[in-house]
Write a structure and sequence with these properties.
- It is a single chain.
- This protein has about 325 residues and is an alpha/beta fold.
- It has 14 helices and 12 strands.
- The chain folds into 2 domains: about 130 residues, Rossmann fold; about 180 residues, Rossmann fold.
- The chain has a 7-stranded parallel sheet with strand order 8-7-6-9-10-11-12, sandwiched between helices. A 5-stranded parallel sheet has the order 2-1-3-4-5.
Amino acid sequence: MKKPKSIFLLSPASRDSIYNEAVLDEIGKLTDNDRRVHSGEDVLNHPEDYRDVEIVFSGWGCPIMDEQMLASLPSLKALFYGAGSVRRLVTDAFWERNIRLTSAYTVNAHPVAAYTMASLIFGLKRAWGVNQDLKRGISSHANIIGLDEGTRVGLVSLGAIGRLVCQYLSVFSLDVVAYDPFAGDEVFEELSVRRASSLEELFSECHAVSIHTPLLPETRGMITGELLEMLPPNAVFINTSRGAVVDEEALTRVLEKRPDIFAVLDVITDEEAYCQTPLLKLPNVFLTPHIAGSLGNERYRLGRMTVEECRRYLAGEPPVVSVTKENFTRMA
């Protein structure tokens, strides 16, 4: 039986970081693939070479799937995206073609959830503050909340990352609260999480708040200075989602006014300005340059996910993570 033709359509660096030799071998067993990295320019300039391409393996650096690109890929039936958000690459023309689209965002959630857990543990143990105290010649266990009965952790959004964090937190005797107006009661029951009726309730009650909401027009700036002011004494604020979900100027003002609050931030609004942001100068901020997601060897699991999605496609089975026009609007 003839194998369907596939190509890699992404940046060379992304191909190398997502698809290791073992994954390349598996793709070669399932499809007719030349292992080369193809660019959008290649497809547009030489459409005759791509007429019979049925499957695209992609990731960061994937070109926009607009009418012109799709016209050069007339046989395309499946695009397996070995990364998270597909927001920048899909178009109305793509949806009209009814092309099967999958994303590896659920496996990309694992390192983000792990980063969040490390931040919660270090934050609620006041590890960074204690370390700073030691450097000033002060050894103190004051204001450490810890992780056990009586500690309340709040999560904003129960998407793939938020749900994983809930699972990790289940080993602790904590009160976990979440705010997600789009999650059904069955999700809260399954995760043994209490529903917060409002962001105000969550921020005013929780010793630690972690943000996992996607950046959408309606979520931009949703975490306001007023909400941050409501945090209890010595609270921890964590953001690994997108910087623009938070009113960053207000966050800076609140952290300057409330040195008892400790913020762990992996994202800021302008990700070209990590070295210039005023947040970097605050002693109660631990800032990293968007490293919570898959990096290094963690990225190979993304490639393995595309292989599983391809295997399911060829076997006529449903995808693990299907991205459709209907569910796309609520994704990151």
